[in-house]
Amino acid sequence: MDSTPEKKRNSLGLGLAIPFLLAVSFVAEIALRAVPIDRFAFRATEALSVRHVPGVSAAPLLPSRQYRNDHTYGDLSALANLRRLRQYRREIFTTDTYGYRNPSVPSQASAPVAMLLGDSFGLGSGTEDSETLTAHLGRLWGRTVYNGSGMTPQADLKQIRRLARELRMRGNLVIYEYLERQGLPSVPSRPPWSSRKTSAGAQDQPATGASPFSWELSRLRILANRMYRFFQNDRILPNPYARNASVCRLANGTEMLFFSGERKGSDASRPVDAAYWVWLERELRSDGFQLIVLLVPNKSTVYEPLLLGREAQNRPGSDYLDRLERSLSSAGLPVVNLKNVFQAQAARELPSNSYLYWLDDTHWNGHGMRIAAEEIDQAVRRQRLVAPDGSWASPKPAD
Amino acid sequence: MLFNSLRFLYVFLPLTYLGFWALKGSTRRHLWLAVTGYLFYASWNYKFCALMAFSTLVSYLAGLGMLRWQDPVRKRLCLVVPVAIDLSMLGLFKYGDFALRSFSSVVRWWRPAYSLPTMDLVLPVGISFYTFHTITYIVDSYRGTIVPTRKFFEFACYVSFFAQLVAGPIVRFRQVEGDLDRLGEAERRADLEVGFSFFTIGMIKKVLVADTIAAVIDPALANVARLSSLDAWLCVLGYTYQLYFDFSGYSDMAVGLGRLFGIRLPQNFNSPYKALDIADFWRRWHISLSTVLRDYLFIPLGGISGSRSATLRNLLITMALGGLWHGANWTFLVWGCYHGVLLVLYRLAGKSWDGLPVALRRAGTFLLVVIGWVFFRSTSFQMAVTLFHAMFVWRGGPEIAGGLGLVVAIGVAAIAAHMGPNTFEIEHRWRPPMVFALGILFVASLVVIAGGRVTPFLYFQF
Fold first, then answer.
1. Please, what is the average pLDDT of chain A?
2. Mind telling me how many Å the CA of A230 is from chain B's nearest CA?
3. Global pTM value
C-alpha cells in the first residue's frame, strides 16, 4: 500500500486533487456571495429571510432590498418537486429600511393611515409589490397603508409600537390578518406593550440583516440544494416533503395543489377564543389605534367545495372562521371574514379559469388580495371606522 | 462537527492540518492534536470535555503510578481505580436511565403504578470509544504489554485525537505508540496520497452510498407496519449495506485523517460480507471492538482454555455484553445474544459447516448476519417482530418512495462489498483517470453535503 515519497511527488494524485477541489469550492463559495442572491433564490422569502437573533432585531426580512424574479413559482410545487405544475410568474419584492415589504418608507408628510400586521399572506408572498393587500388598500383609499407583516402570526407589539412611532402614525387603523390554519395567538403573560421604555432596548435598534457569511445566504448551498432536490422525485430518492402537498382536480378540470395539513377533516372541535384580540385591541386603543381583524380562509376551505368527484362531497366544510367571527363580533371587535365572500367568488369565477389563490401555492394571488381589500374597505365604511367626510375616525371611547 | 460537514472540511481540517505541520517537535504536535481534539469534541457539547479530561488525567496518573510502584497492591490499585471510574462513567451516562427504566418495568409486574424517576442524562458523544481507549491503556500497562508513557500530551493526544475520538476505531496505545513517539519526525508528504485516498473513499461510501440508502429506508422503516414483504427485505438489505458503508466509511475517513497527521490507525473492517462463517465475520467486522472484547473480556473470562461448556458460556457472555455496548436497549442485547448463539452453534457444528461449498457458506453467513441486523435496527421488540413478520409472511403493499434509487444503491453496494477489494487492499496509487473519477465523486459528495441532509454517522450513537 505504501509507496515512497519520491514516487508520489511525481504523480498528480488525490493528495493534490482533493485539497484543490476543497479550495476551489471554498473560493467559489466566497466569490458567489458577491452575486445577488436573486439569481439563485426562487422567491423573495428565500432570498431575503433573516435569521432572527433574539434581542437584536425583529425585522422579518433583509432591509432596503429589491428582489426581482420573472420566473418565480409556488411554494407547493417547489415543496412537492412537481415541475409540471409550476405556475411561473413575476415577483418584485421590495423591502424598506426597517425590513418590511414596502416600496419605500412613507415620508413625514404622508403618515400611513393604516398598518397591516400578518404573515406571509400579509406579505403578499409570490406577487409583485403593486399587487399586495396594502397596495390595493392604498389605491382604494388614496393614502399610504404600511405593510408591517412579518413571518410570524403573533404580532410583536414592541416592534409595532416602534414602527408606529417612526412612521408618525397615531389614531389610525391596524389590520390584523389571521390565516385559518394558524394556531390561536395567546395573550403574553407580561405584555411588552405596557413597558414605556422604548429607547434603549435592544429590540428597538434598527432592523439588521443576516450576516453576509451566514450559511442561509450561501449561493452554493442553494445551487446544491436545487441539484439534490432534482433527484428527490420519489423514484430515485424519496421526496420527504411530498406528503405536504396534494394534487386535486377542480370541477373545471384544472389541477390545483393544496397544503395537506389544511385538509385533515373537520374543524368542528377546534376551539375559538377571542382573548388575544380583545387584549390587543385594548392595548392598541390606549395608543389611539383602531383594530380590525381580517380572517383569511385556507385555500382548501375555498376550493374544496369546487373539487371534482367524491372528494369534495364527502369532506365537511370548515366552520372555524365563522365561529371565530361570531366570537370576535360578540366581543365588540370589528372583523372581516373572507370565507363566504371567497367561496362565492371562487365558484362564480371557476368557469372562466380565474382564481383567488395561485394554483401551485398555498397563498392568495393579486386578484384574491384585491377582493380582500374591497371587503376591508366596505367593512371600514360600514362600521364607520372612517368618518363620513372621508377623514379617519377617532377610536371608540373606552368601555 | 461531522467529518462530512462543510465546517469540518473548510475550517477545522485545513487549520488543524496547517497548524500541525507548522509546528516542530513531538511535544508541540502532541499538544496541538490534543487541543484540536478538545475543540472538535467541544463542537458537540463543551461541557463533556471535562469528562474526557478527567478520564485522561486519571488514566495518565495511574500509568505513572504503575511506573513508580512495583508492589502488587499499589499496582492493582492503579488498575482498579481508573478502570472503575471509566466504567462508572460509562455505566452512569449510557446505562443509568436504561437500568432505572428496566427496574421500573420489572417492578410493574406486581405493582402496576410503580415508576422510578429517570435522570434523563445526555449521552456524551464518543464516551464508549474514549473510555475503551483509556481502559485498554491501563490494562495493557498493568499486564506489562506496554510501558506507560510519561509524556502527558502524548497520552492526551492518544485519547483525544479527533480522527478516532467519537466513533473509533478503538485504538490501543501499543498500535499507535510508535507513531506518537516519532510524531516530531513525521514527514508531511509521506502519507499524503494514501491519507486523502482513504478519506475520499470513506466520504464517498458514507455520503453517496450509505446516506442514499438511508434517505429511502429511514422513512419506510418509520412506518414498518405498512411494508410489503418485498420492501421489508429491501429495507433490511438496505440497512445491511448502509451500516457497513456508513461505519466502514467513517473508519476509512478516520484512517485517512490519521495518515495526514502521521498516525497509522488500525484496520476496522476487512470485507466482512465475504465471511465464510460467523466466527470469520467477527474477525472482519468492527475488528477494533471484537479484538478488544476478545482480549479484555473473553480471554479473562477463561476463553477456550476451560471445558467446552465454559467456552460456550464465555462466548455468550462476551457477545451479549458486546451487543449491550452498542446501546442501552434490549434489542442490542438480543442482537449480541443472537450472535453469541451463532458462534456457539458454529463451535459445535463448525466442521459440518466448513464442509459446505464456499459460495453456500458465504451466502449462508451473509443471510444470518442480515437477520441479525433486524434486531440491531429495531428500536423495540415490537418493531423487530413486525419486520420479521413482513419478511417471512408474504404480503403485498404499495411500493416505497425512492425504490429505484434504493435498488441501484443496494446493487452498487453489494458489488463493492461482495466482490470489490476493501480500502486496505487497495494500493492507493491512482492513475489520472481514477483521480478524475474520484474527484468527481468527491464533488458529488460535497453537493449532497451542502444541498441535502447531513446525517450523523450511525456509530456516533453508540
1. 80
2. 11
3. 0.77
